[in-house]
Batch of 2 targets.
Target 1
Amino acid sequence: MSLVRLDNVFKIYKTNGIDFPALGGVSFSVEEGEFLSIAGPSGSGKTTILNIIGCLDKPSKGHLYLNETDISTKKSTEQAMIRRRNIGFIFQTFNLIPILTAFENVEFPLVLKGDTNQKERRTMVEEILTEVGLKDFMRRKPSQMSGGQQQRVAIARALVKNPQLILADEPTANLDSKTGQEVLDLMLQLNQKTGATFIFSTHDKMVMDFAKRLILLKDGQITSDEQRR
Amino acid sequence: MWTLFKLAFRNIFRFKRRTFITLSAISVGLGLLILSICLMNGIDKQSISNIINCQTSHIKIFKAGYFDKREELPMDITIKDPDRVRSLLKDVPGIIGTESRVLFGAGLIKGMDELPCLGVAIDPLVDPGLFIIKDSLVEGAWLEPGDAKMLVGRGLAEDIDLAVGDLVTVRMITSTGDEDFSWNAVDLEIKGIFDSGHPNVDNQRIIIPLQIAGESLSLDSQVTEIVVRLNADDNKTITTAQTRLKEILKTLEEPYEVVTWKDLAGMFLTISKMKTKNSGMIIFIMLLIASMGIINTMLMSVLERTREIGMLSALGMKKSEIMTLFIFEGGFIGAIGALLGCILGGLASWYFEVYGWSVTGFGDTYQKLAAAVYPVKDVFYADLTMDVLVTTFIFGVAIAVLASFYPARKAAKLKPVEALRHI
């Protein structure tokens, strides 16, 4: 059973009455535990695919299945609940809540999910922050951390609730190559350790080389889909 | 919910300067509102106290027919046997005491000048136990029952330059009819000058012993009214006593009228009601300013945090939760602003309650204008009550929450994808 399946997904954006096709009939499946990169030049539709898989956007046509359930037609509240339970996000610009400490930022998805008590949350957050190498930075606010540290917090935030799927939109784009490499190492390590499925978009050659599977996009169409390792 | 609460509370300190400006607008607005309400309430309270203490008492008893003609000060609609009526009222619960009085039109003649005034004949032995005129004497001494002397208000004394010991001719109007207008002139020495705090009383009244009025106005023991003093000013006490007095007086052969201070101070009450309406407008404007501040702050916040809203949505926050977060933020700003407003307004009101607000500096014309509206002069005192503070606080928070709805809705309606793309 596929974790994610896109079935002939189209996405057309309308601006001032003019149609801009972003995806033109994309179909592929993702199995549990995969470490998949969707790559392509700017405007190729990689972020659109991530948004649709992450229930942040709906396809104009076609279907999205999560655990073989069609979720493309779900209401926004139901989609929010799917995001809350099943999906973790890592953003290019980290998007941490500036008024919360690293600990609180990571704790936030657990609080939203609501199935853990304070003590359990503390243990889980401390574990994951230790895992990403930020044990000593728990009480720091995002503004007191480097970009790489912030992205590590974001990774911890995405992983802490043990989601089935982690979506990362150009996770290294705002980092220098050394820090980017470290972040990718960390993601791969966590993928291997936890078995969480990672799908990340990139246009960076180094990131593509990290992926176990690489889907290449151009003008909203898949041009290649290959297993790398 | 607790997390949203905590998050909202921290968010209000993110943009400190903007929050400070909004809080200042709310707190100053609500503070001024509290001060103006407390001042108005205080002036009303002072006015009512002055009306009851110096003018009407709580209840007046007239012979039937007098009330409608009271402006004419008729001398032919009198209570024939006031002592008998008073003796019947002695044991009514809530009554401190009663006093017979005669109200008459008069003119003070000094040289070629004559100044019209209102004469009040009182019982010098009873009055001090019930009213404040004796305590408000600023010069001279109190009247004795048989004194051919009078007390004058300070304003009246200043108007025609009278002093204690002066002998003044008083023209006492004994009949006010168009055809049988008649009067009697008596020379009375000024024994004292009073300053009661009620401008109309101090500017227009002379007070003489009841015995002199009986002789000069050919009334003998008849009086025009009996004033009744109660042990409390509240409506319930007054209406209960009024009902009881009516029942008692019904048993007498002659018909009587029992009226309260509210029946006699209609003008003041009308103005007070108008003032309440006008202050409603002021309240509305102040709250509008406060709510505009909140709407502006919240809209700016939504705009600046658009990406963050997208991220919260990505983490799985529902639209309703995002809306709640922003409403909490507005509510917090409102609550802190209202609290500061209550402190500011409370302190200012307390100051004016203790030290008063002197209007003597505004000049004579202003004071006369104020006196025409309110039976209060020189110093206005605020009346600070807990319910004004509590009501204003609740109102402030409610307005803040309402004002947050639009920005909160705007935040909740943001599409996650577009919000995340926002720069």
Target 2
Amino acid sequence: MREKSYDVVIVGSGAGGGTVAKELAPLCREGARIAVLEWGAKLTDEEFACPPQGRELAMARKLYFESGGVFNAERTMTMAFGRAYGGSTVVYTGTSLIIPEKTVARWAVPGLSWEDLARRSRKVMQENNVHFLEEEAVNDNNRLFRDACERLGYRVEQFPINVKGCRGAGLCNLGCPNAAKQGTHRVQLPAAERQGVEVITNCKVLGLAEGEVLARVANPPYGLPSAWEEGEVRVTARIIVVAAGAVNSPALLLRSRLPVRLPALGRYFTAHPALILVGEHERPITNFFGHPKSFYCDHFAESHGFLLETCMYFPFTTAKNLIGFGAEHSELMRCMDRLQMILVLAIDPALPDNRVTVDAAGEPVVHYRFTEEVLDALLESMRASARIFFAAGARRIHAPAGEKFFIEAHEAHRLDALITRRRLLPGRISIASAHLMGGCRMGDDPATSVTDAWGQVHGLPWLFVADGSLFPRCSEINPYVTIMALADRVAERVRTRLQEGRTA
Amino acid sequence: MLHLNSRCAAILDAVATDIVPELATADAERWEAFHAIVDLALAERPPQVRRQFAAFLSVLNLLPLARFGAPFPRLAAARRRRVLQWLQDRAPARLRQGMWGLKTLVFMGYYSQGAVAPELSYCPSFSGNEHLHA
């Protein structure tokens, strides 16, 4: 078997891994050898420019695990997470929020303060060119949402986003065709590589132990070939940073059979279970033109446990998120240029039985059950969204838990009777998740957490975690900036650990 | 189709026209694209999932025998719809999940075809901002 040797190996190149790579990169000038091992491929700009028609499936296959439809074990939810040079930062919409102070207070991690996270968040937001979209670039889908929320007295805020030269393709979730989104594939990884960090794509990490990582390189039929030859490789490293995301990081640690007891490993997985809701207008609105996500409403976060965001999805994604089939479904699908869309995110609790395990082959299995409170939140979110659609002027709306396929504007006063809990059956309605969190949660008690407040795995000074799996509970907002802020902390601690090694 | 036997493929084709009515009048090219997408999606799933899907199609085929005296593809459209509606709304969880998986696969096979997009009034552009105030 071939062998490679580094001081630091980082597993994963998304928001966490990319940030750690960039922060440690200056050490290369002092002779440190640093490698990022990324499972996914690095796509060329030509591949990102795949035509809009038919792009949905073509890009999903290249940029997501299982095309964005990984099931939980209960088959009641699909999970979308990226697999690419840049990880999920290639496929998010670039919404950039600082985690609320109250959320960090609820996390209650000794040694982790909101002030520290906010400071680091501001730093990465500056790096990523985060700013508000100008008013003339806001499309009808977003404007209607904002105006309706204001009319109803719901608190609504604009998302800061991390784009540079956005031309409004509206295809963020399939990789930006205009190279506008400032994910780690555009900012942190190129910066790290310029300073000497090696990024090895198409490289799946099979397992790890103290001082070494076992990986396999296999080139898919797209993207650039890996810098390494195909086949298995043993990589030695003084420090290993795992940043493979909330599904794959716990799975990697679980199949690696670490020499410490970590009963919380894989547990307390949260997902912000999501619904995509639609309202139909009489006339076409601008929805698939322009940036898709400009506003969010956190009015119901504390009272009912959900957030609402603007969104605009693609034909297949839209079709599978509508309940029903046949003529009515088809009728709604034929008017995509008249659809207003809202994304619901439920704020879900961190429970020990919602967890990542591994199967006999070492592959991750996500066990996730919806609590009654989460289902209640999803129900209320449909009613609130319906009110917003109607306040925005929609002629009719579709709610997955509706007593009928369409609810007409003249029925808006009967939403409680027309959108009911008995229709909200897991496995009947389409619930998805793109915010995967927990599984390697931070804390000071090894019985209930996996790492300390700096991402170091309890009892293993050579092993760190730096991704959304660190979250002890869900983030209650879009998580990527918080992942980067935490990764920035992890990098700081790794730097110290390397220096300690040199002086010891 | 490589990942479904001919019997299951025939059941899938029959039910697909109930889920997406446009498929009933689709031309050979669109059906070919449908089959290619579904086949690739099945190829990418673990063998166990493919087996479960084939098993669900067999259940769907036989389910109406007791009540309507005929397998699914030979039922009139209204009865087929009743069977599918029951599977979606009232069946035990495993069957409900199977129905969800079936619908998802059929929607994928049809709605992810680039040629379908104009019929959905869906025509995004890489320079979408230029169309915002047109």
